[in-house]
Amino acid sequence: xAEDTLESIDIxxxxxxxxxxxxxxxxxxxxxxxxxxxxxxIKNVTYNEPQFQGHFPGQPVMPGVLIVEAMAQVAGAIxxxxxxSDKPSLVxxxxxxxAKFRKPVVPGDRLEIKVRKIKKRxxxxxxxxEAFVDGAMVAEAEIQAMLAPAxxx
Length: 153
Fold this sequence. Notes:
Blueprint: E1 7-9, H1 11-17, E2 29-34, E3 38-44, H2 64-83, E4 90-101, E5 110-121, E6 124-133, E7 136-148
Antiparallel strand pairs: 1-2, 2-3, 3-5, 4-7, 5-6, 6-7
């Protein structure tokens, strides 16, 4: 029996897949990529990121909405990569369901975002997402998105 090898996506490939750039690219790399079925995104949270100037001075906490955005970027990157170059080139958020934030994420943390495809129908895809720091779950949500060609809305 041949063993499946999981792939990874480095920052240079991420920038080819996603339109996001600093300060809105929320990922450093993606590991354990299994096609568009599942993957783990890595975000090294650092104090010099702009959100920490105002959220919150003296007690910096990564905003939950940015954790959810990181989840969406992992799901979007693996979906676009699996679709190939002649397919959709953008991913649009449709829904965020059952989002829960369990512990604060702070500078110095290594955020691991695990996404797993639940369902795909046509160009609509749904993922279960969980975020961890040091093995402890810090957030979870289900997201749904639409794959579309650039310029479509």
